[in-house]
Amino acid sequence: MKILHFIYYHNDNPLVGGGGAVRVYELNRRLSERGHQIKIMSGKYPHARDFKEGNVEFHFIGTDKNYVLSTFSYAYAAHKRIRDIIGRFDVVVEDFAPWNPIFSYQYSDIAPVVLQIQNYIGKEILKKYAILGTPFYLIERYYPHKFQRVIVVNEVLKARYNLPQSIFISNGIDSSLIHERIIFHGTYIGYIGRIDFYQKGLDVLLSQESRLNVRICGTGKRKDVLRLTESVNKNNFFEYLGYVSGADKINFIKGAKFFVLPSRFEAQPLTILEVAALGKPLIVSDIPEMRFVTENGFGVSFKSEDKKDLEAKLRSLWVNDEAIEEMGKKGREFAERHTWDNMAEEYERYLTNIPKEG
Asked: How do strand 56-61 and strand 51-53 relate by DSSP bridges?
């Protein structure tokens, strides 16, 4: 099968990061190992060069001047490119973001087109960008309904977008994490993810006064990183360790007592699955997209944006080693069912059945 995949994000893009690019890479890498041929079109960033990895080709389109120009030029270039090459592929996947829709549904008469949705922002767009966010708010609300086939990464997104025809395929983890040795009793509270004050709720985390050691890992836009650095320098209970990956990331997770994710909006952060796989519970905001953490028993929630409630939950869990160990075991069980290998099988089964629909 020949698959054409459009997603602005890429793992190496320094302009913006996120789990969406990881998902696309991990799923398509496994499909390529099974003989499928895949072309991935992503937004251009400084020093980006086209390359090939097995049966996966990576191409970068648009301009690399800055994030705003990059994302808009990607959408324009992708829309032009799809028109010229869609006939060469068995199925097309568009990863959706309201900032750069490429209108691939217009070519569904040439090849089957699937929209993949990894996030929901809703009215948070208007809160963050005011009147300037209106076009993007409307795109997010109406654009997905142009597609007959939709994949969501969280069950809640079906209801958020009112897309009963969509199917749910979860994010995953590398199965090697399941074989790592668990250390239940760490020495700090961990945060790992994109440094984004508004979406990730870092302002709420930094304003709580539990006086417990919180260590933060990740990277993001320069202004957010500078803001975080300034905040950390004013409070001895917070540490910013920068970006971590590979063995350093695993050791950072192992060394924590538990993790906190105070996001205002999310889909299904990869961090949650990685932390769960290594036997660490989580404290998450009570937004619907993260309800699966409490429903499956490997974390607790606090009222979103409520620093006092977050502070209380941090202090309560800090002294409850029995709960930490019990939730850690349940997180491990949940993660074992959500490996990238399992998710790739579901993804492949869905895509390969599309052409048979006629």
From this structure: antiparallel
Per-residue pLDDT at 13: 86
How far apart CA 35 and CA 51 sit, in angstroms, is: 18
Where do you find CATH 3.40.50.2000 in the chain?
A: 2-172+340-357, 175-336
Give pTM, 2 decimals.
Answer: 0.89
The answer to whether 1 and 37 are in contact (CB under 8 A) is yes
Q: Torsion angle, CA of 322/314/215/237, rounded to 10 degrees? A: -120
Q: How confident is the model at residue 49 (pLDDT cuts 50, 70, 90)?
A: very high
Q: Measure the CA–CA gap between 71 and 100, rounded to whole angstroms.
A: 6
- Has domain 175-336 been given CATH number 3.40.50.2000? yes
Tell me if the domain spanning 2-172+340-357 has CATH number 3.40.50.300. Answer: no
Do residues 184 and 252 lie in contact, with contact meaning Cβ atoms separated by under 8 Å? no
Residues 238-263: tens digit of each pLDDT: 999 999 989 999 999 999 999 999 99
Output the average pLDDT for the chain.
93
All residues at 6 or more sequence positions from 190 whose CB lies less than 8 Å from its CB, including other chains: 214, 215, 216, 217, 252, 253, 255, 256, 257, 258, 259, 260, 275, 280
163-205: pLDDT as tens digits: 988 999 999 999 999 888 888 789 999 999 989 899 999 999 9
Cα separation, 154 vs 169, in Å, equals 7
- What region, left, alpha or beta, does residue 101 occupy, with left being phi > 0 and alpha being psi -120 to 50 degrees? beta
